[in-house]
Amino acid sequence: MSGTTPTTLGKYQIIREIARSNDIVYEAYDPLMNRRIALKELAMPSGASDAQRDDRIRRFSREAKAAGSLNHPNIVTIFEFGEDSGRHFIAMEFLEGHNLRNELDTHGFLAADRAIEITLEVLDALDYAHKNGVIHRDIKPENIQLLPDGRVKLTDFGIARITFEPNLTIDGQVFGTPSYMSPEQVVGREIDARSDVFGVGVILYEMLSGQKPFQGDSVVSITYGIVNSEPSQPPQANHAVWQVLTKALDKSPALRFATAHDMHRALESAKSASRSQVIDYDLQLYGGSGTSYSPPQPAAPPIGNPYVGTPYGNPYMPAPQHPYNPYQPGTPPITQSPHGLPPGQIPVYYPPPPRAPLISPETKQFLGKMMLTLIVLGTLFALVIAIIQGLGTLIDRMQTQAADLPMRERMAGQDPNVPLHERIAEREKIIPELKSEVNRRTEERNVAKLYEAQGREYVRVGNLVAAEQAFRSAIANDPQNPTYYRLLGSLFSQTAVQEMDIEQRMNLWKQSIRNWEFALTFETNEAIRKDSAALLASACYRLANDYLNLGQEAEARSLLYSGREVADPSSEVSVAIQGLLDRLTRPDDSNP
Known about the structure:
The chain is an alpha+beta fold.
């Protein structure tokens, strides 16, 4: 594509370019409907292969189909998906206002009531989308538009998935914005509506606290926090709201809200509880039971569109008096209507004639040759610099390896008869002194193995608390080793079986489920994966029974479905899960 803004695309007249990233967004005018629209054009990267072009076009079409199938007041309206001379575009409603990211950058954080109201409208949009088979997969503040009249619109279905159509994303491929991804999205597992719920939880947390729940200075540290860390309670989130946030941000999809509607209902209840507390306080503060206090309400936004009658919605650009075309001289004037337009005539806008070029062709040719020469010289210079830097990096690496050699030889010669905690302490003291990142990672994995051995020894003597800490230390040093997650999962399961207090036991089962899920995520051995899946399904089954004992049937049913999904259909635990699901579905069958 050329760098200049086109004047038309399809039937639409382009006014200006609004934004440019993976695609290009224009403000445009629809002359047939006499309305201002947003026009999104597919930008094809230069040098793309035919396969890449076809994939980009399919995804662009999928975005139009996903959002275009949805008709909801909180979702951006798609008018048309079209093509003009090989240029693909999506025409959609033009949204005034600004997005939630601009709001947070300006104010830091939002008042609790405002944050909850925005979240409720986003959940309304997602509930409608999910019920129509569309998973958004990229929930973030940039895709939430705040309109001047207070409404909220969900936008950008560019990586949405339509559940009843083939998936364009291959297994293990990750799409989304790292800070707002769910744990299963980070590791490339299959995702569903519960991943969107996790993203909404992250946004609500950020609106209440002014910072993201999982922070870091790189994608690796952010995703590690998403998978392993638990956020702290924001000061603005009372107990009821914090309970909603905790469930929405649970690492395990089975323990999250099953639907956006469930989270909406829980957040409404938390909001009502908070409001009743505020009202009681106000009654006491402003006159007891005989006096009520009402805070001042903001003025209502103006009703109606002040831009009606102008082609682009601009009050400073009056509507044309007749459809004048500067390229067809002698256009006769037309009798005007009261609105400045002929009766029944649709306003047509024509751009002004192009101005004379500022640079002569000869000068342009000279500048082009000079630019080409500079590019060639710059490329050669950059190549020389790259070679010098490569040699410098190689020399630095050799010097680093030589500097690390004495310390690595000392650690390799550790006496195995020395107590484990002393060997661990010695290695942890030396690791920060290693110069090579590769050497540090190798020694961290060695320390993780020592922690594993220490944890197994604690289990053998019955010190389960110390064993848990040792296995967690192993994970901290080697976070993608499935063995340590399996050991933690088994440890929590063993403790849960012996626990008599139902709340403590349920918490232990939840931690067991979480660690079995991570073990499955990183495990590549099929035999071990099968065993881990059976133990995960067993933990889901036992936790479901505890939920049933508390009368919480919906949570129990969600866990049973998750357990059935991972278990071998012929295994005993799968048969037990199906039996319990049948009993929940047909409770009267137990009566002869």
